[in-house]
Amino acid sequence: MTRVVEQRGLYFDELEEGVIYAHKPGRTVTETDNVLFTTLTMNSQALHLDAAWSSTQPFGQRLMNSMFTLSTMVGQSVTQLTQGTIIAQLGLTDVTFPHPLYHGDTLYTETVIAGKRLSSSRPGQGIVTMQHTGRNQDGVVVALATRSCLMWTKDAHTAQS
Hints:
Blueprint: E1 20-28, H1 31-40, H2 46-49, H3 51-54, H4 66-82, E2 86-96, E3 106-118, E4 125-135, E5 141-152, H5 154-160
Antiparallel strand pairs: 1-3, 2-5, 3-4, 4-5
């Protein structure tokens, strides 16, 4: 019999408060990423699309769309933390972008489990609070976000399957 190993995130029971989960590999962001994401989401902000105009602004160049940065930061955590073990994302708070991300930068994300508790109304499930930090290749923080998720416990998910 062949053993099968399925890639998944961690269950509620496996997540440890205070641990830093470093998500690799990083993601080098490109002009194509920025233009595609910005136009797909109907964001006509010239800071993302107009190189000539952006060159006259305080940062001197186009900025990566901050929603792309946020989405990528959360996305980088999925395979390690929530792939197949999340029930629902409940919310995002305290989202900040202290430094811009530029074309050609590489985004690296770490997540700290800030808190977790079993759900009082949903047996076998728990609420996990994650603090995501995105840094560029030089270690400069470019994004921060707190995220809450409803997660399976291992036994409940196995019993439900």
